[in-house]
Amino acid sequence: MNNRDRWKMFKMLVAMFVVVLLTLAVYQRGNLNITAPFELSRQARMDASERVEPGDALEEKTGPNVGEKGFWKVSKRQPQPKAVATIQKTRISQDISHRTWDVTSSNCSANLNLSSHEWFRGLEKSFQQFMLYRHCRYFPMTLNHPEKCMGEVYLLIVIKSVATQHDRREVIRKTWGKEQVLDGKKIKTLFLLGKPSDETEKANHQKLVEYEDYIFGDILQWDFLDTFYNLTLKETHFLKWFHTFCPSVRYVFKGDDDVFVSVKNIFEFLESSNDKNLFVGDVIFNALPIRNKDNKYYIPRALYNKDVYPPYAGGGGFLMDGRLARRLHWVADTLELYPIDDVFLGMCLEVLQVSPLKHNAFKTFGLVRDKNSKLNREPCFYKSMIVVHKLLPSDLLHMWNLVNGELVCSQKVEFLKRNENIR
């Protein structure tokens, strides 16, 4: 190989070396430029995973144009209102799951000191029993469903019932108490029970209640006897339960298990209401305590010496704001228990200086003064009501089917009121 050939070989090697250097430089620069976007993308995904709802994340991954859709989603999410709400909902749900009913024992002995008082000895046996255990405020839970209040619940339907009235609960679940989402708002239903009071059948009734709850999962039960004078205990226990487990429930409807209810009419009413002190029902003003011993609602003067009750709503059915229900819990703890639950709630409202609202669509003491009136079986009248008390299960189911069928009403309720002397 002569000198000329050696020179050509040298120039070729130098050129190849330069090309290799340039290639390495370009490759290294490309790596630097690529790494930053990938790091930013990874950080964006990490941030998004902390903020985006599961549905949105799934939508991003499965979209036909993943990169483009993800980009536009990021740009749209700058204010992040839904993301913040999702975090709050998650925290509320986690908070509820860690809350418990804090009463674990029902050891409560009679207040025998009362027996030395003359006024106590003058009471009827039933009131003596009530007074002896009046200080027993709270009892353990035997059936609990805190999950009912998880998430955004717009309306919580709460029904007072007893162990033996399973047929009433069954009809309610099929009709107005059916859990659903109406106009995008969630409705949940619960039944409130105490222990069966029939001594001979107590164990059997309790087993049936437990099996019913196993199937439907909608019964709250406490370890006190389900008696008339213990209805106030059912009220205070629910208020405590609601305060403990339901931080985000918007409204509460509470009623008996023998009423007809129109949830659609409740929603229509609530559309025009934003009162944090809302408490509406068939309100009674200037009611007198009944002193007749033969009456179910008899109250001795030793138990209540005033001449007039504060305004209160008939317990057949009323509607209240969730914020007010939480305040009622605290007030209820400061008052002595009273054997009539409707009146007791009126006393609580009086302490809070909240005036219950009377509404003509709540009929908790009957539709008309004449019980034989045809209006008691007139579906067009029921269609315009919120609550009607009271109906047997078969009558409730029949009326529900009529009202929610192809019903055409040719007369107005106002006309019917004028002609039938409705309350």
Automatic annotation (TrEMBL):
<dbReference type="Pfam" id="PF01762">
    <property type="entry name" value="Galactosyl_T"/>
</dbReference>
<keyword id="KW-0333">Golgi apparatus</keyword>
<comment type="function">
    <text>N-acetyl glucosamine (GlcNAc) transferase that catalyzes the transfer of GlcNAc via a beta1-&gt;3 linkage from UDP-GlcNAc to the non-reducing terminal galactose (Gal) in the linearly growing chain of N- and O-linked keratan sulfate proteoglycans. Cooperates with B4GALT4 galactosyltransferase and CHST6 and CHST1 sulfotransferases to construct and elongate mono- and disulfated disaccharide units [-&gt;3Galbeta1-&gt;4(6-sulfoGlcNAcbeta)1-&gt;] and [-&gt;3(6-sulfoGalbeta)1-&gt;4(6-sulfoGlcNAcbeta)1-&gt;] within keratan sulfate polymer.</text>
</comment>
<keyword id="KW-0808">Transferase</keyword>
<keyword id="KW-0812">Transmembrane</keyword>
<dbReference type="GO" id="GO:0000139">
    <property type="term" value="C:Golgi membrane"/>
</dbReference>
<keyword id="KW-0328">Glycosyltransferase</keyword>
<keyword id="KW-0472">Membrane</keyword>
<dbReference type="GO" id="GO:0008194">
    <property type="term" value="F:UDP-glycosyltransferase activity"/>
</dbReference>
<dbReference type="GO" id="GO:0006493">
    <property type="term" value="P:protein O-linked glycosylation"/>
</dbReference>
<protein>
    <recommendedName>
        <fullName>Hexosyltransferase</fullName>
        <ecNumber>2.4.1.-</ecNumber>
    </recommendedName>
</protein>
<dbReference type="InterPro" id="IPR002659">
    <property type="entry name" value="Glyco_trans_31"/>
</dbReference>
<dbReference type="GO" id="GO:0016758">
    <property type="term" value="F:hexosyltransferase activity"/>
</dbReference>
<keyword id="KW-0735">Signal-anchor</keyword>
<dbReference type="GO" id="GO:0030311">
    <property type="term" value="P:poly-N-acetyllactosamine biosynthetic process"/>
</dbReference>
<comment type="similarity">
    <text>Belongs to the glycosyltransferase 31 family.</text>
</comment>
<keyword id="KW-0325">Glycoprotein</keyword>
<dbReference type="GO" id="GO:0018146">
    <property type="term" value="P:keratan sulfate proteoglycan biosynthetic process"/>
</dbReference>
<comment type="pathway">
    <text>Protein modification; protein glycosylation.</text>
</comment>
<keyword id="KW-1133">Transmembrane helix</keyword>
